[in-house]
Amino acid sequence: MRTKAGLWIDHRKAIVVAVTEKGEEIREIISNEVEKQLRRSGDSPLKGTYESLQIPADDSRQRNFTGQLNIYYDAVIASIRDAEAIVIFGPGEAKDELKKRLEKNNLGGRVVGIETVDKMTDHQIAAKIRQHFVQSR
After folding, report:
1. What is the C-alpha separation between 69 and 74, in angstroms, rounded?
2. Coil, strand or helix: which one is 86?
3. Which structural domain range is residue 123 located in?
4. Cα-flanking dihedrals φ and ψ of residue 134, to 5°?
5. Which residues contact 49 (CB under 8 A, 6 or more apart)?
6. Are 73 and 43 in contact (CB under 8 A)?
7. pLDDT above 80 (res 62)
8. Fewer CB atoms inside 10 A, N or C side of the chain?
9. pTM score of the predicted model
10. How open is the CA angle 134-17-135, to the nearest 5 degrees?
């Protein structure tokens, strides 16, 4: 069975639509651990010589953020791995980061389109994906 997939993605969630001859399936994948804004913990303002011990180093917070994103992107990739054609869209950097991750997994050749769009409902996403694959026939 030939499957085509499209998805809307940002750093918080992905809406994946798989289209086959039998119809379509919509799935939502949530990024549980990723925060949009990395925040420092502790009282503010911190005083004393122990501030560096109370606030995680920026590079360790960035490594944690990147690690969580990689887990999230791997879950998204697992849901679209069998698709012969993939279209990706969304508002920010996540769509390009996902494309690079797909290329790293030797799936980059299946990406047939990337587009910047703002927030959409699940129905709008499904309609846009259907329209994209109907026009590309």
Report:
1. 8
2. strand
3. 4-135
4. -70, -40
5. none
6. no
7. no
8. C
9. 0.76
10. 10
Beta carbons within 8 Å of 42's beta carbon, 6+ residues apart: 54, 55
Q: Strand runs (DSSP E) across the chain, as ranges?
A: 4-9, 13-20, 23-30, 85-90, 111-116
DSSP-assigned letter for residue 46: -
Query: Distance (Å, rounded) from C-alpha 97 to C-alpha 33?
Result: 17
DSSP 109: G
Number of domains forming the structure of the chain = 1
Indicate the average pLDDT of the chain. 83
pLDDT tens per residue across span 10-40: 999 999 999 988 888 999 999 976 554 445 4
In one letter, which amino acid is 135?
Q
3-state secondary structure of 103: helix
Q: What angle is formed at CA 33 by the lines to CA 60 and CA 81, rounded to 5 degrees?
A: 105
- In angstroms, how far is CA 97 from the centroid of its own chain? 8
Q: In what order do the strands lie in the sheet with 13-20?
A: 23-30, 13-20, 4-9, 85-90, 111-116
- pLDDT-derived band at 97 (thresholds 50, 70, 90) equals very high
Q: Which DSSP symbol is given to 10? A: -
